[in-house]
Amino acid sequence: MTIRPASSIDRSFVDVRSLVFWVMVGLTGYGLIHIAPLLSNSLTQYPAAGLVSAVLWSAYGLVLMLLLYRLELFERRSPLTMVGAFVWGAVVVSGIGTIAGPAVNELILKIGVPDGWAAAISAGVTEEPLKMLGVVALALIPRARVNSPIDGLYFGLIVGLGFEVTESYLYTVTGSIQEGGTFMVILLTFVLRGIIGGLWNHPTFTAITGSGVGYFFGAAASLLRRTLVMVGSLLAAIALHAFFDSPVLEGNPLVSTVVKGLPTLILFIVVFRIAQAKERRRFARIGETQVPRDLITEDELTVLASRKARRRARREERHLSGFAGAHAMKRLQRTQTELVDAMADDGPDADRTSELAADVREAQRVLLETRQPVAVPA
Amino acid sequence: MPHGPVFWQGGGAGSSPVGATKEAHVLEAWVSPFEGGVPHGQIRFPGKHTLVPRAYASWDEPTQCPVERTDIVNRGNLPSDAKFSHRVSVPSMSSHANPTAQSVPLSVGLLGRRSLLGATVVLGIALMYILALPALNHAIKGEGDFAPGEPHVVGGNLQITPAPGWDLDDSSGLLTVLSKAGATFVPTPAVDNEQTAEELAQVGIDGLKADTSNTWVIGEPQTFVTDAGDHGVSVTAHTTDQTQMTWVILNGSRSATIISYSPDSAWPTLSPEMNEMAASVVFLDDEVQP
Question: Is residue B253 within 8 angstroms of chain A, CB to CB?
């Protein structure tokens, strides 16, 4: 009897047996109820401006999502789960934020915090935990495969991106409506929020908290240690968010954004490097101990561990056997990476693992064929 | 010793390493390295049943498989008469092994579960933001809360109707400051004036352009009419994190100006309310003491 492991049946977060999935669906509906009027208002009052803003910000989100997908080094995550993470940020956090944001702000004002700081603190206190909750929800659904800091960081980036897109879209359209639907305002706001201030804003905050969530769910450390890491990452994100929105260093938006964004960027890079190093070690360990050497050699494992080495290997292959060889090398690297991933997630006897092992052999054969010397006519 | 996965081949209840049930046959189990050298594994049953170890053993050398004892707990839908927790003894594959009990990563422990507790936590936190915090805010009445629909007189000659949730921050002298969610809305009393609303709005625009401490993206002036039928002009300007809106309203030879500042996170939600409040402006003929 052949058993098909669940992991190869479906790697997306859509799991109708999971109660967390249905909670996510319900909260998405709730968010939609609160966001839809704001969206429809913009489209009915100024259809052209609303449409242009929608296209612009959707393209922004899509391009960044594709970029993130392409930049994955060891694992291609489920596109459906990526969409789920994006929707959580775009709909759930935005929708709940319209209710919770003003309430939290007023509560903070009532305890005597000055106006500018109250707005900054309330944005962090409201939005960061809600965005993190999206990564937690995904981690609670095993099929979503959030079981390492790099997984949490990755989905955190996407949740933050979703929120960034909705918030910026609403901001752009509202601004445009206020000024008669002018396209120049749309364009300027896009540059201001998307290019200058967007990238080290919500996605990076949530990536930091997401890595904490990934550690909490994926590490075998004590509960206390895992909780401290997760809560610490959340507090760091709230503090960075509040600092970014704070009234200090106001003035030139470019200088202000860069100076305020710098701590976020530095922390993000540190967290990313730690998370990626852990992932690299895990990849190497699984590759070394579980994959037969005829499928991935020691040298190939070293090459697969870094993007730079992979590129160099493809370049060398191109010099050796042309573009066909470089293409064959790329295919071999991709299938070998997927094989290690399948070995870790599905086990050595899973259908997916067997299929990928066959794919690797086929890719090796094709690569060898491209290296055959071409017969030169006499 | 072979390195890599450890396989347990099982047959019926009697011969399976977990002493499983009549209905469930253990087919295989595998253990693979997990982060930090902790083995990660699961035991698969026919159908959708999956058992996962509840406790793990660490290994020092990836090429050794020192799993000696582990608990197996049901994470699937095995029949109710199945025994779900058993001790498993697997012969040590290395005499050098030094297993140490460690906790299972939560992501492994969740395999096959419906996560009632997790769903409750996610829903509970969401409800805290949806219901509890707004209710708490409502319960703690601020000093300057308005009764719904209650008009407020500014400087004795202008009346404005605050939208729900707006508080009176300051009403000393001629200055009135309303606030909500970090946004401020400052109507000034009516003054005698000979300029048009557009000219007055232009003065504000010139002021923003001359502001060297901020770079403003300034929109085109838009005309509007108040509920009382007065002509007005509004201008919106943005920086990276805040928005300023200005409304200039004319009533005969008098004018009134309203300025608001909002953090960008609150502005899309508050903008319609602020427009409503600007449209609610009524010029009073007789001086009213606030």
Answer: no
Helices (H), A219-297: 223-245, 253-290
CB contacts, 8 Å: B111 with chain A: 142
**How many beta-carbon pairs below 8 A join chains A and B?**
256
| CB within 8 Å of A192: residues ≥ 6 apart | A253, B217, B238, B239, B240
* Cα separation, A326 vs A215, whole angstroms: 37
Residues B267 and B264: their CA atoms lie apart, in Å, by 5
Low-confidence ranges of chain A (pLDDT < 50): 1-9
Residues whose CB falls within 8 Å of the CB of residue A334, separated by 6 or more in sequence, listed in order = none
**CB contact, 8 Å: B244 with chain A?**
no
Residues B57, B99: contact at Cβ < 8 Å? Answer: yes
Would the CB atoms of A256 and B125 count as touching at under 8 Å?
no
ipTM exceeds 0.95: no
Nearest-angstrom CA–CA distance, B237 and A188: 11
* Alpha-carbon gap, residue A349 to A4, rounded angstroms: 9
Say how far apart CA A314 and CA A304 lie, in whole Å: 11
Name residues 191-230 of chain B within 8 A of A (Cβ).
213-215, 217, 219-220, 222
Closest-CA residue of chain B to A174: B268
d(CA A296, CA B223): 70
Q: Predicted confidence band at B58 (pLDDT cuts at 50, 70, 90)?
A: very low
pLDDT of amino acid B210:
77
pLDDT tens digit string along A356-371?
A: 999 999 999 999 888 8
Query: DSSP string spanning A108-123?
Result: HHHTT--HHHHHHHHH
* Tokens encoding A63: 């391009």
Interface contact B42-A347, CB threshold 8 A: yes
B126 touches chain A (CB under 8 A): yes
Contacts of A282 in chain B (CB under 8 A): 33-35
Comparing CA positions, the residue from B219, B228, B211, B206 lying closest to residue B280 is B228
| Beta bridge partner(s), residue B32 | B40
Q: Mind listing the pLDDT tens digit for each residue in A303-319?
A: 998 889 999 999 999 99
Query: In angstroms, what CA-CA distances link A33 with A53, A145, B107, B122, B271?
Result: 21, 29, 32, 19, 19
Residues 6+ apart with CB under 8 A from A216: A139, A226, A227, A229, A230, B106
Taking alpha carbons only, the member of A220, A218, A211, A205 closest to residue A167 is A205
